[in-house]
Amino acid sequence: MIKNKFIVVEGLEGAGKTHACIYIKNILYKRYNIKNILLVRQPGSTFIAEIIRKLIKKKFYFEHLTKETELLLMYAARIQLIETKIKPALKKGIWVISDRHDLSSIAYQGGGLGINKIIINQLKLLFLHDCTPDLTIYLDVCPKIGLKRVLNRNSLDAIESRSLEFFKRVRKTYLKNIKLDQKSIIINANLNFNIVNDDITKKILIWLKKQHI
Ligand code: T5A
C-alpha cells in the first residue's frame, strides 16, 4: 500500500508554482495511478481563508496593513486550511499538494519584511505541529523574470507591487532555508516551460523511487 504524502511547492511570484502543482498531480496520476489528490493554495482554499487572501492582496490607500498583521493573517489562513482540509485529507490517505506553506512566511514576512525569525518559528511550533511537508519543491526564479511574467498576465496586487529589493531579500531567504532542508528539491524556474517540466519530472521520479513508490 502506497503511503500518501504532503508535497509543497514554493517560490516567488511568477515562478510557475500553480502550473507545477497541476503538473505534479498529473505525474502522480499518469505514472502511479494515484487519484486521491487534494490541490490547495495558501493563503486560501477554504471559504474563510479565501476571504483572508482577498484582504491580504488588496491595496488599501487609506490604512497601512502592518507587517505583524500580515504575518498573523497568513497564519490564520494557514491554520484554517490545515485544520479543515489538509489534516483530514492526510488522515484519509489522500495526497496533498500545496501551492505554498509556512516557508512562504519565513521568506516573505521574515526575509522580505524583516520580522524576527524567532517570532515566526514560535507560530510554527504553536500551530503547525507535525503538519510539515514530506517534500518541498522550490522553483527558483530571479525576481525580475518572475514579476515580468506576472505583469504580462494582469495588474500587480499589494504584495506584488513591492520593491525589487523586497523580492531579492525573499529569494535570498528562500535559498538559505531550502539549502538546509534535506527534504527539498530545487528547480531552476528561469528557463522555459519544457526544461522546467523535464527537471521536475526527473527529480520527482527520483524522490518517489526513494520513498518506495
Ligand atoms: N504570501 C503567501 C506571503 O507573503 N506569505 C505567506 O505565508 C504566503 C502563504 C499569494 C501572495 O501571498 C504571499 C506571496 C504572494 O504574494 P498569489 O497570487 O497566490 O498570492 O501569488 P503566487 O503564489 O506567487 O502566484 P502566482 O500566480 O503569481 O505565481 P505562480 O503560481 O508561481 O506562477 P503561475 O504558475 O501562475 O505562472 C505565472 C505566469 O508565468 C507564466 C505562466 O504562464 C503565467 O502566465 N510562467 C512561465 N512563462 C514562461 N516560462 C516559464 N517557465 C513559466 N512559468 C510560469
From TrEMBL:
Instruction: Using the record's annotation, list all stretches that form the Thymidylate kinase-like domain.
Output: 9-200
InterPro entries the UniProt entry points to? P-loop_NTPase, Thymidylate_kin-like_dom, Thymidylate_kin_CS, Thymidylate_kinase
Q: Name one GO biological process term.
A: dTDP biosynthetic process
What domain of life is recorded for the organism? Bacteria
- Keyword Cell cycle recorded: no
* PROSITE patterns from the UniProt entry: THYMIDYLATE_KINASE (PS01331)
Catalytic activity of the protein: dTMP + ATP = dTDP + ADP
Question: SUPFAM superfamilies per the record?
Answer: P-loop containing nucleoside triphosphate hydrolases (SSF52540)
GO terms under cellular component: cytosol
Q: What is its EC number?
A: 2.7.4.9
Q: Give binding positions for ATP.
A: G11, L12, E13, G14, A15, G16, K17, T18
Write the record's keywords in alphabetical order, separated by commas.
Answer: ATP-binding, Kinase, Nucleotide biosynthesis, Nucleotide-binding, Transferase
Provide any one GO MF term from the record.
Answer: dTMP kinase activity
Homology family: Belongs to the thymidylate kinase family.
Q: What does this protein do?
A: Phosphorylation of dTMP to form dTDP in both de novo and salvage pathways of dTTP synthesis.
UniProt-listed PANTHER family: THYMIDYLATE KINASE, UMP-CMP KINASE 2, MITOCHONDRIAL
UniProt-recorded name of the protein: Thymidylate kinase
Which species?
A: Buchnera aphidicola subsp. Uroleucon sonchi
